[in-house]
Amino acid sequence: MKGFLGVGSWKLEVIVMAIGLLVAVFPRPGEGQAYKAPRTASGQPDLNGFWQALNTAHWDLEAHEAAPGPVLQLGAAYAVPPGPGVVMDGPIPYRVDALAMKKKYAADALREDAEVKCYLPGVPRMMYMPYPVQIVQSDSTIMMMSEFASALRTIYMNSTTRPPADTWMGWSNGKWDGDTLVIDSQGFMGSTVGALDQEGTIHVRFLDRAGNYHTDGLHVVERIRRTGPDHLLYQATIEDPNVYTRPWTISMPLYRRLEPNMQLGEFKCEEFVGDLVFGKYQRK
Amino acid sequence: MRNAFIAALVACSVASIGAQDRQTTPVKGTYKVPRTPDGRPDLQGYWTNLTYTPFERPKELANKPLYSEQEAIDAFNKAVADSQNQVVHYVNTDFAATPVQTGAKPNRRTSLVIDPADGRVPPLTPDAQKREAARLAADRPAPLARTWRDDRGTVWCVFHDRSVPSLMAPYGSNYHIVQSRDWVVLEYEWNSEHRLIPLDGRPHGPSSVRTYAGDARGHWEGDTLVVETINFNEKRNFFGSPGTFTLVDRFTRVAGDTIMHTYTVEDSSTWTRPWTVELPMHRINGPMLEYACNENNADAFTTLRNARAQEAGKLPPPDRTKNVDDAKATILEREDKK
After folding, report:
1. Distance spanning both ends of chain A, measured CA to CA
2. Alpha-carbon gap: B30 to the closest alpha carbon of chain A (Å)
3. CA–centroid distance for B175 within its chain
4. Between chain B's N and C termini, which has fewer beta carbons within 10 Å?
5. What is the tens place of the pLDDT at every residue in B289-333?
């Protein structure tokens, strides 16, 4: 039986269309390579500026339908917009036990998701939250700062230092692979298990609001390069043997914020969540 | 929070290694400020403004703005010795957080305030005196914390007030500076507060947007980075000014191991005149780790939970601060057990 494209069986057409879709959504490794990134004074590809994802990855890294939001009173204002997903080689390869845990954590997202509590978002989550990211680049150090929770990551160029301690934003070593900045990050805090506030404990760290998660076993390798004057291609390979059966990769463009007066605003969200986090211990 | 504190101190101790054998300040006028590839003065790296020089000049030194070199060394050594005798809830020597371990240096100044000439913050205007009196009367702390807002000292993670304008701290006084052509990042260890300073000549933002860190704009004047910051919010209180002050910072490298940092604050609705602070920054080795304060804030949780338990009579009232001998005895007792 021929499919509606008339080129072969319908199964083949589905495969052809799927490949076409993948090519359309995810730039191939060679695409944009022709673009030569402008250089800093010391000759590095220039990544300075304000960048932001324009997608729904912060809601769910995987393809998802529209859905009502988690708080009835917020109605359509905080409903989940649909999205085609940013996972290149999905579905996310969860271990069987970890997939069950994902569903459990997702059902308890308002309590379990550290974004709600204004905790530092970690990597790669910081890069595709709906907040701008500023890159300030010098030869030996690249700073990436998110507006969310004033999160900051320091990328130590050409360093082989191992993480001295687990931190919320992890430890990042960077190097240039041609025009691509390659960042290897590990040393991530995986939970607050064992802390005094047992009811407030977060057991894992969310990668998005859908409950996709990682533990302290996280290892991220990011590849970032300019594909045009106002675009970065951002890819991150995510590995965590506690959760996934193999490494997997997300890919998305980041767009330059072009406003001439662009700067990171002060978003000290701790101030907005104190009553939520400590409410039951406060005097009315 | 406690974990973050320890992590920060680990960074401190890493930072201290090798800080002792750095080059000393060369003769004034011969030092050539290094440049970034963009040709700008290079302020990058790790620095500390830890100091044992008092903020305001002590009354007994009223007419002595400068020590001799030997007096400065003696005063520093005495301060170091005193710091190891203080009541602390962390043991400074254990965490490599004493002045000698963290790159602090003797200072010939007898106060950090260098203008007015008496080395003291100028008096409040009559209106500001009334305003401050009213604020303090309304702000009287409750004996037990009611909400997370009540203890700005230890459980409050929103903003670290010492980061801007720069004030001395007993530890964690470390900075990491990174520059691109158009921006300077001044990261402070406490709370990982970071000032993002544009150098592209843009005007200040609107005064309707007021923030804890203020709205900073920088430019180069010769070898000096000059940063003007305004639009602080009313939740700041800087020596009586409710965020209405203008801050002008000046950072100049004067030696391989020293940035001279001065700042002037001005607020005619608060002080009778502008005043200026000089707070040198000395080079230390990095790295400087993340200071995660809000994440699992055990101090806030414990303070509030215990306060409620105390109200309910389920927990005895908090201990009075232990005196020096008690604190030392506790430390010695622990040492004995090792």
Report:
1. 71
2. 27
3. 10
4. C
5. 999 999 988 888 988 999 999 999 998 876 644 454 555 555 555
Query: What are the extents of the domains in chain A?
Result: 1-31, 37-281
Q: For residues B9 and B90, give the distance between their C-alpha atoms in angstroms, rounded to a whole number.
A: 11
Is residue B114 within 8 A of residue B278, CB to CB? The reply is yes
Specify the pairing of strand B183-188 against strand B215-221: unpaired
**CATH superfamily to which A37-281 belongs:** Calycin beta-barrel core domain (2.40.128.20)
Query: Is A38 an interface residue toward B (CB < 8 Å)?
Result: no
| More confident site: B30 or A151 | A151
* Among B14, B147, B180, beta carbon nearest to A136: B180
Helices (H) and strands (E) in chain A, counts: 5, 11
pLDDT digits 0-9 by tens, A181-211? 999 999 999 999 988 888 889 999 999 999 9
Tokens standing for residue A272: 């907005």
For residue A77, the distance in angstroms to the closest alpha carbon of chain B comes to: 25
Distance CA A156, CA A170 (A): 12
What's the pLDDT at A34?
82
Q: What is the pLDDT of residue A5?
A: 45
- Residues A79-132 have pLDDT tens digits of 999 999 999 999 999 999 999 999 999 999 999 999 999 999 999 999 999 999
| Residue of chain A minimizing CA distance to B297 | A197
What are the residues whose beta carbons fall under 8 Å from the beta carbon of A3, sequence distance 6 or more? A9, A10, A11, A12, A13, A14
Which residues are CB-contacts of A217 (< 8 A; sequence separation ≥ 6)? A190, A240, A241, A242, A243
Residue type at position A224 = I
How many whole angstroms separate alpha carbon A74 and alpha carbon A71?
Answer: 6
Number of H helices, E strands in chain B: 5, 11
Provide φ and ψ at A258, rounded to 5°: -95, -5
